[in-house]
Amino acid sequence: QIKIGVINSYSGQFADTGAQIDNGIKLYMKQHGDTVAGKKIEIIRKDTGGPNPDVAKRLAQELIVRDKADILAGFTLTPEALGAASVSEEAKKLMVVMNAATSIVTTKSPYIVRVSLTLPQIADTLATWAVKKGGTKKAYTMVSDYGPGIDAEGAFQKAFKEAGGEIVGSVRMPVANPDFSAFVQRAKDLNPESIFVFIPGGAQPAALGKAFAERGIDPKKVKLLSTGEPVDETAIKSMGDLALDRISAWHYDFNHKSKMNSDFVKAFNAEYKRNPDFFAVGGYDGMHLIYEALKKTNGNADGDALIAAIKGMKWESPRGVIWIDPETRDVVQTVYIRRVQKVGNDIVNVEFDKIENVKDPVKAAMKK
Amino acid sequence: MLPPVFGVLFDGIAYGMLLFVLSVGLSVTLGLMNFVNLAHCAFAMLGGYLTATLVNDFNWSFFATLPLAFIAAATASIAFERVFYRRLYRAGDLDQVLLTIGIAFVSVAIAAYLFGTAQQPIQTPPLLRGAIDFLGLSLGKYRLFLIAIALVVTILLVVGIEYTRFGAQVRAAVDNQRMAGGLGINVERTFAVTFALGSGLAGLGGALAIEIVGLDPNFSFIYLVYVLIIVSVGGLGSIAGSLAAAILIGVSDIAGKYYFPELGAFLIYLVMVVILMWRPSGLFGRR
Amino acid sequence: MTEIVLSTRRLDKNFGSLVVARNIELNLPKGARYALIGPNGAGKTTLINLMTGMLKPNAGQIFLGGEDVTALEPQERVRRGLARTFQINTLFPGLNALEAVTLAVCERRNIAGEFWRNVAVHREAIEEAHDILAKLRLGDSCYQITRELPYGRQRLLEIALALATKPKVLLLDEPAAGVPQEESGEVFEAVASLSDDLTLLFIEHDMHVVFRFASHIIVLVSGAIFTEGSPAAIAADPGVREVYLGKRKHG
Amino acid sequence: MAEPLLKLENVTAGYGDAVVLHGISLDLPERGSLAVLGRNGVGKSTLLMTIMGYTQMRGGRVIWRGQDISRLAPNRRAVNGIGWVAQEREIFPSLSVVENLTVAARPGPWDLDAVFKLFPRLSERRRNMGNQLSGGEQQMLATARALMTNPALMLLDEPFEGLAPVIVDELIAAMKTMLLDRGIAIILVEQHTDIALELTAEAIVLERGAVAHRAPSAQLQKDTATLERLVGLRVAATA
Amino acid sequence: MVPTDTISAPQLYLQSLSRWSATEIAFWLATLLPFFLFPNYLSLASQIAITALFALSLDLILGYAGVVSLGHAAFFGIGAYAAGLFSKFVWGEPISGLLVAALLAGLAGYATSFIICRFRHLTLIMLTLGLGLLAFEVANSAHWLTGGSDGLQGVRIWPLFGIFKFDLYGYTAYSYSLAVLFLFFLGMRRLVHSPFGLALRGIRENLVRMPAIGAASRAHIRKAYTIAAAVAGIAGALLTQTTESAALESISFQRSADVLVMLVLGGAGRLYGGLIGAIIFMIARDQFSGIAPQYWYFWIGILLIVVVMLLPNGILGGLSKIFARWSRK
Ligand SMILES: Nc1ncnc2c1ncn2[C@@H]1O[C@H](COP(=O)(O)OP(=O)(O)OP(=O)(O)O)[C@@H](O)[C@H]1O
Ligand SMILES: Nc1ncnc2c1ncn2[C@@H]1O[C@H](COP(=O)(O)OP(=O)(O)OP(=O)(O)O)[C@@H](O)[C@H]1O
Ligand SMILES: [Mg+2]
Ligand SMILES: [Mg+2]
Asked: Which residues of E touch C83 (CB under 8 A)?
């Protein structure tokens, strides 16, 4: 028997992220059975209630000490992953990060592997694409004033400038911010060619989108660039036509066209009455990684054995082919460039360009 | 063409109105009744989910759901009042805090169970979408709608509570329940009605807020701080005070974010701290 | 002439348009037993509030033992020997009488900031507190929580708290209201007997008490001193009769 | 015999577990007046509060116009015609003087004009908030407020406390008219025995929560020995 | 009842209030049980001890002086970051880290106490809330120092006394936290029964009367607030040291609110209120979220509601009332 301790934010502000990761995990187990290499897989869920590294660390300790967990997984938020990292190192247990997207996470313990994304991976790619192919040389950036936002801002600006673009201004917005009109007005005053946005998912994307529309910023004239969250499914739904023509770079959308994905989406919908998102796919791929690694080690859940097994592992995920960089244990994947469009009666993100085999640019730069 | 400062002013007032509709109910329960109702936003959430469900799943008109949001929250609150709140009117603030936080917790769990943890987007009617152009300013229609509602609610409440015998009875009962009862005031009924009114307004506020701040189970907690700020800055027991506070906070928040974005997150709290230090009982407070 | 311990100079106070103190000049000699009377709302309590610093005057000064205390905080004045009681009970509802008075004694002895030792080690302070309570016949109810004391006992506790500050000047705001007449006499006697040097100014509407204990009476009307004099002179003053005493027989 | 207005049958009551009143019985006819005397803490205020319904009844019954009201909520009792002036006045601080008066007013001969005539001082301070009044003004307001409910029975807990002698005179006169012309019954708790006995027809003296003596007021007034024994008052010496 | 005929009776009476009872001794002995009975729960136990210390510090100002604070986590957070930064930039010795944290949090408490002591009621609550939120925003924007929302990186704590390493099982963490908690509890117990404790209760009962008995209540409040801040700082430092992490959450409104709820749940104004509240709340949360990680707050909510309805004034307040009634019969 193998126990996987899943640490997530199941309650509080980030409850939905935890729920979706969980859905991904459950769906994978439903499809692939709960026995691998002759061992029964048991999931133990723990709730951190939010970005609490101390709680995450305690839960990780308890999972290992009390519940005798063999593998740690989950981690919606970077602080959670960072809190548990030292435990995985000390206990020599595989730790599968299914979301937390700050670059440094995987460097904190040799037993960490990430299957989700790193923010710079997206922001950097988008910036380069915007200058080279997107036809914009002047950008304004708007990000939420917290770790991931600052990360995204840094990555975007750096890559944008390196590609020959110019950053005309930037603003960091409070994390809890119900009204964006002032920030949008500021951006508008500078009349930029494009605006890059990073804000966490939830209620804000729609609010920001509506603020753009109210201020008369037309995505047809001013390119609105962003990562995936600001144009996620609920945001688009609530914005309606106002979302049309917004451009984003992201690694997964439920509209991705592939057989694997359409099966996945169908199964997911049947089970949970909603569409999967990148959290769900993170959970799903994380489980795949664990299953495959266990098959390779023949059910040996020892941390070193598992880590050796996952290095370089490559597989087809609903988002396309992804693989684990053996040096950084970080995910390498395709970044899609999408535009919000009307397809039939639905308003959805449509992929129209892609950049393959994107590694985390931060760790790549560090190596140089 | 009007200079941008008018735009900022308009946005600020409109933002203030959002805060106002969310908090005016608390201004009734906490301000008038002195009941520390931290479950306020739970009643708002109830209104919100009702509206979202009716609009999304039953294709109701958004406008038609608004009175229902009020009624539903008011009705639910009467039940709560009977079972829980009533027994705590005389208890200390701290017991009230504990009870209402408990209720808020439960509401979050129930909402998550019934509606899931995802956001509940709603599409407002076309009438309220987009903006109208006024001397070069683009005024969001929904914001104009909010301003109108806030003004109507304020006038109704000020007239209905602050200048009537009913209002005086509420205040009397809050000041001294024993004496109020001893004079023949039906304290229980007075409180129940006031409470239903406050919660109904919360429900209405919740329904109106979805368009701007969205709706998920955590709604019960996220806006609690803002709501408390408005009520305390306005002054306990004063509806007009809440309105003034909402405008002040809204305008200074928007203006701050526009002119000094670095201070964005600080400003609302700074304004509150400064005002409360200058006028401890709030702008219009009488106690 | 004896030494003046408390005096006011041209004290003015108004609430909006309502004048509650108008050019008040007051001199309390050491050991005096002064009564302050006047119609309801004349400004008697306000005057006490001004003298003790609970209200700030619009103009004028207050001297305590020759020192100008107008700008001092209330507790500073208490520490200089100016104590008061409240017309409407202002007690510590959740403490018992012993604790409350012990607290006042500790404050006076400057040990109330001591957080590293048990109160019980301060035997003298506790006994002093208990003595005061016993003198006011609160000895047996001193372990009862204040909230549950009958009103009359609470009135006595008001006085006990003031006494615990060992005042030189004591301002009593209707101390006997709610206490049976005979007992109120005893209260006054107990207070007066504490020390010959204690200067007393009391507000009272019970003329039995006033005429029995006051050596001098000040009549306040509409915020200004109407007249003052010996009890006999005041009792006979037709003006005072008309505005305050009424037709009944007093004293 | 006519139905008494108020009748207490063997009432035992107190606060929580503490029993303060022990087996009190009394009755008060329509338009009657009763003085309640006794030392501090014997339970005079508790008796009034029990009639209002604010204590825990342990036994006995309170009967109002023939109906058992022992279980009736205080506000129902007030509406039925019992007015209460509490010992600590309990003015509503966040209401103005006028609001204090009108908040629970019920129609009848006592209206704003009437009470302002009785207490002109209140009329001068009509815009003040309840907590911006002098002690005596609050006392007037407490009495006036109870009058505004136009009760059939007034429970008065030391209503003269803190009032200037002239006002006391006027209030006494007003109470006499109240009793004689308006037909309001009163139960008066008072430390000033002479005033209490002058105003009332009957008197009871409480001792440790029980009725120790009962007599017509006029008779008790002369019975200095009993008064001295039970109330502790040397009437002759001080009056 | 205490006899009143001997002179020292009142003194005896006051002394009797501070006597150790058998229940108390049993309580503290029971805190050792986790070592034997639940060795797998030691890290939880250590976080409970830390939270209990935090609640104890809040009790001093809230329960005793009536100063309701919704921003107490500011001091907890200052302590947490102080200890973290100290270990990162100076050295990782834990005891000195605690002292530094106490000093910094105490200083911050002292500075803000000048504002706090001038207000009451809702105004005070909102001011503490505002100051707490401002502290949070400062910590968030001082990204370069605090690590912002990712939390502080690079906290390394040396073994306690150079011997006891902070182990995975939490033996050291719990022993250390429990010892610190007990020490400060003893101090608190002293304080509560001291003249100063009496003065604080006086302030809680009637602030208006205090100046009239010559009390400088503001100075008292400032002092209590400073002490409470320092103790909260120590609690924060303990959390950092036992988990080798410090995060924004330690300064958040949520933490302020949680500790308030725990204290009220246990019974404010009672020495053991914070401790009992922290124990019950945290164990309940752990157990409920073990059962249903997504819905545990449903059960917590029910717990709070039930406690308020059945045991007003917190668990201890309610129990003591029931006990008093029962013993009177
Ligand atoms: N805060 C205030 N604002 C406005 N008016 C006030 C305030 N406090 C007191 N007053 C008014 O000031 C006047 C004087 O009040 P004060 O309490 O000094 O009277 P007093 O002489 O003590 O009367 P009493 O004998 O009834 O106690 C009163 O008419 C009262 O209504
Ligand atoms: N809230 C209370 N809880 C418990 N006991 C109380 C409470 N209020 C009063 N008592 C007790 O009830 C008894 C009677 O008090 P009550 O106030 O009725 O006396 P009283 O005759 O009105 O005295 P006074 O002349 O001082 O007004 C006293 O022993 C008192 O201690
Ligand atoms: Mg007075
Ligand atoms: Mg009484």
From this structure: 212-214
Per-residue pLDDT tens digits for A18-45 = 999 999 999 999 999 888 888 899 999 9
Q: Of all protein residues, whose CA lies closest to atom 6 belonging to ligand 1? A: D132
In order of start, what are the domains of chain C with their CATH numbers?
1-81+167-251 (3.40.50.300), 86-166 (no CATH)
Separation CA B184–CA B166 (nearest Å)? 13
pLDDT digits (tens, 9 = 90+) for A320-345: 999 999 988 999 999 999 999 998 88
String of DSSP letters for E242-281 = HHT-B-GGGGSHHHHHHHHHHHHHH-TTSTTHHHHHHHHH
pLDDT tens digits, B243-271: 999 999 999 988 888 888 888 778 889 99
State pTM to two decimals.
0.91
Distance from the Cα of residue A242 to its chain's centroid? 24
Q: Which residues of D touch B181 (CB under 8 A)?
A: 73-75, 78
Q: How many beta carbons lie within 10 A of that of residue A302, not counting itself?
A: 13
The residues with which A346 forms a beta bridge, in sequence order, are A343
Where are chain E's structural domains?
A: 37-251
Q: Which of A11, A68, A72, A76 to mutate to test the interface with E (most CBs of E within 10 A)?
A: A11
Q: Which residues pair with C224 in a beta bridge?
A: C221
Contact C244/D164, CB-based, under 8 Å? yes
- Per-domain boundaries in chain D: 6-230
**Physical contact, D and C (3 or more Cβ pairs within 8 A):** yes
Bridge partners for A331 per DSSP? A324
ipTM of the complex: 0.90
Around E192, how many Cα atoms within 13 Å sit in the side-chain half-sphere? 22
Give DSSP secondary structure letters for E12-37.
HHHHHHTPPPHHHHHHHHHTTHHHHH
Cα–Cα distance, B282 to B243 (Å, whole number): 12
Using CA positions, which residue lies closest to atom 19 of ligand 2? D41
Reported as a single tens digit per residue, the pLDDT across A259-282 is 999 999 999 999 999 999 999 999
Please state, in angstroms and rounded to a whole number, the distance separating the CA atoms of residues A44 and A46: 7
What pLDDT shows up at residue C248?
Answer: 63
Task: Give residue D11 CA to ligand 2 midpoint distance, Å.
Answer: 16
Residue ranges lining ligand 2, Cβ < 6 Å? C 148-152; D 15, 18, 20, 38, 40-46, 87
The per-residue pLDDT for range C66-108, each reduced to its tens digit, is 899 999 999 999 999 999 999 888 999 999 999 999 999 999 9
**Which spans in chain B are helix H?**
4-26, 40-58, 62-83, 93-115, 141-157, 165-175, 177-182, 187-213, 219-222, 224-234, 239-259, 264-278
Q: B14: which chain A residues are within 8 Å (Cβ-Cβ)?
A: 181
SS3 B20: helix
What percent of chain C stands above pLDDT 70?
97
Residue of E nearest to D17 (CA): E325
Q: Which two tokens stand for residue C28?
A: 């309390």
Q: Alpha-carbon Rg of chain C, whole angstroms?
A: 18
CA-based nearest residue to D51, from D31, D21, D90: D21
CA pair distance A110, A104, nearest whole angstrom: 12
Rounded mean pLDDT of E304-327? 85
CB of C43 within 6 A of ligand 1: the answer is: yes
C199 vs D151: CA distance, rounded Å: 46
Instruction: Look at ligand 2, atom 22, and give the residue with the nearest C-alpha.
Output: D45
Counting residues of chain C whose pLDDT is more than 90, the rounded percentage is 55
Query: How is chain B split into domains, by residue range?
Result: 4-220
The CA–CA distances, whole Å, from D58 to D24, D208, E325 equal: 11, 16, 16
Average pLDDT over residues A194-203: 88
Cβ neighbours for E210, distance < 8 A, ≥ 6 positions apart: C75, E199, E202, E203, E217
Q: Does domain D6-230 have CATH number 3.20.20.70?
A: no
